[in-house]
Every structure is written in structure tokens, then in C-alpha cells.
Design brief:
By secondary structure, this protein is an alpha/beta fold. Helices cover about 40% and strands about 15% of the residues.
Length: about 280
């Protein structure tokens, strides 16, 4: 018998707010590798990477899925290390969590990049988002990602494509859709939307109660993917990393609205700073 979804409880996320040791260094908090940002969508990969950095990852590298590097550095966040995807994948940078798909596109080059990542990720956890999910739904990539945790982050239309049904069917029973996807892919599934539903590979369900309509704007999904990768890279217990990122993403939007920033006109790029403030407030 399927158990009902349990609300994500801030009190059940102690690792999200744990203080850092005095002798910490950048290697203490993991390395995130972001693979995405195809032509015209460079910003999606940067949003994810900035969110990973401001969520606390020690180092963040971005591998753009373009024939040439679109920019030499991120002028807003020069701490990010920018590469083309081939150099990111072919060298061992010690990545402890991957985020893939943000703005990646759906052509042959993105499909090849993701297929290579699945082979080369060295069992590091993987967050697969956006067009990565559409390529999976179309059969242009296969779930041959091997061992190591995987987190899929579909919105309702992407979930519908993955299951071969209409979006209305997903929305009629969101917990059932999340559970079906988790079972099919043996992955964590984050079914985004009002009341985001999270399903673990074992079928355990949670529902998020933070967030508001300010999140209904371009780029917020990229930020969430980066936050997931950032927390997972820091080696928080996996359930706290996944649930914590979902809770924190919504709570950041709530904090911004409480300050008068949104919901109308709230932008994705504002979320990471608000999430950082919440983690540091404890």
C-alpha cells in the first residue's frame, strides 16, 4: 500500500544548518561539475553554477556544450572555472557531484555530451535537469548512467514526456507520477510545481510546503538544480541534501517576498543569495 507524502520538515534537516569546522578548506566542501549551457542558453548553466557556489560548494566548474567557449570568465562570479565540456569530462577534476542538462539543448552534441558524462562520471552523484530529461524521453540518450545516486528534476510537462502521457494526467496524481518515475529509473525524482513532490528510489514520498508564485519565472529550475548539486557535493546525507535543496529553494523565495522582492518580478538570480543567507542564519 502506498504511503502518503510527508511534508518536508525544516527540523529534519540538521545538516543543512550545521556549523563548519574551523580548519575547513575549499576541498572540504566538494566540487560541482555543471554540464550544459548550449548556444543561446549560456545563462542557464551559469545560474546553476552560481547557485551551487553560493549554496556552499568548495569549487564549481562549468563545461559548456558549445563548439567554442562562450566567455572567458563569469563577470558576476569569477570564482567559477569555465571550460568546454570535453575538457571538463576528459580530465579528472575530482568532481563530487554533477549537474547536467541546464540549457543544454536537444541536438546531437548535447546527446553525445550526456552519454559521455554517464560513462565518465566515476559514480559521482548526478542531477539531470531540463533538456537532459527531454533527450531521455525521446530515447536520444539512455539511462546508462551506472552506479551512484541520480536525481531527476522534471516539471510536469517533462514528467509527462518521460511517462508517455499528457500533462493533465501528471497533475491529476502528482505523487503517483513521481513514484512511477522513481521506480522506472531507480532514481530520486523531484517533480516540480506548486507543492513539489520528491520521491526516493525506494518509493518514499515527501511534499514541499515552501515557495510561492515568484518561482514561476525562467531560470528558477536551473537554480534548484545547482542547489541540489551543491548540497550533494558537500556530502550532506543524501536525503537531507535532496530534501534540503527543495526546502531551501522555496524558503529563499518566501524570504524575498517577505522583503518585498516579488512575487511579481522576482528573478531566478536573486534566489541564491537568499538561500545563502538562510543557511548562515541557522
Amino acid at each position: 500500500m502506498n504511503t502518503p507524502a510527508v511534508p518536508i520538515d525544516r527540523a529534519a534537516l540538521p545538516a543543512l544548518f550545521a556549523p563548519r569546522a574551523d580548519d575547513s578548506h575549499k576541498g572540504s566542501f566538494g566540487t560541482v561539475g555543471v554540464v550544459g549551457g548550449g548556444p543561446g542558453m549560456t545563462g542557464a548553466a551559469l545560474l546553476a553554477a552560481r547557485a551551487a557556489l553560493k549554496t556552499g560548494a568548495g569549487k564549481v566548474l562549468v563545461g559548456f556544450v558549445q563548439e567554442t567557449l562562450p566567455l572567458p570568465c563569469d563577470p558576476l562570479q569569477p570564482e567559477l572555472m569555465l571550460r568546454d565540456f570535453r575538457s571538463l569530462l576528459e580530465e579528472d577534476w575530482g568532481v563530487t557531484a554533477w549537474v547536467a542538462g541546464c540549457g543544454i539543448g536537444t541536438g546531437a552534441l548535447p546527446a553525445n555530451a550526456l552519454s559521455e558524462l554517464f560513462v565518465l562520471r566515476r559514480h559521482a552523484p548526478l542531477v539531470l535537469d531540463a533538456d537532459g530529461l527531454n533527450l531521455l524521453a525521446r530515447g536520444e540518450i539512455r539511462p546508462t548512467w551506472g552506479a551512484g545516486p541520480v536525481v531527476l528534476t522534471p516539471h510536469p510537462a517533462e514528467a509527462a514526456r518521460l511517462l508517455g502521457v499528457g500533462t493533465d494526467a501528471i497533475q491529476r496524481d502528482r505523487p503517483a507520477a513521481a513514484r512511477q518515475l522513481a521506480q522506472r529509473f531507480q532514481a530520486w525524482v523531484v517533480l516540480k510545481g506548486a507543492g513539489t513532490v520528491v520521491c526516493a528510489p525506494d518509493g518514499g514520498l515527501h511534499i514541499n510546503t515552501t515557495g510561492n508564485p515568484g518561482l514561476a519565472t525562467a531560470g528558477t529550475g536551473d537554480v534548484l538544480a545547482g542547489m541540489l548539486g551543491g548540497l550533494i557535493a558537500q556530502k550532506l546525507p543524501l536525503d537531507q541534501a535532496v530534501l534540503g535543496a527543495i526546502w531551501l529553494h522555496g524558503a529563499a523565495a518566501d524570504a524575498l517576498v517577505a522583503q518585498g522582492v516579488g512575487p511579481i518580478g522576482l528573478t531566478a538570480g536573486e534566489l541564491a543569495d537568499a538561500a545563502r543567507a538562510l543557511r548562515n542564519q541557522g
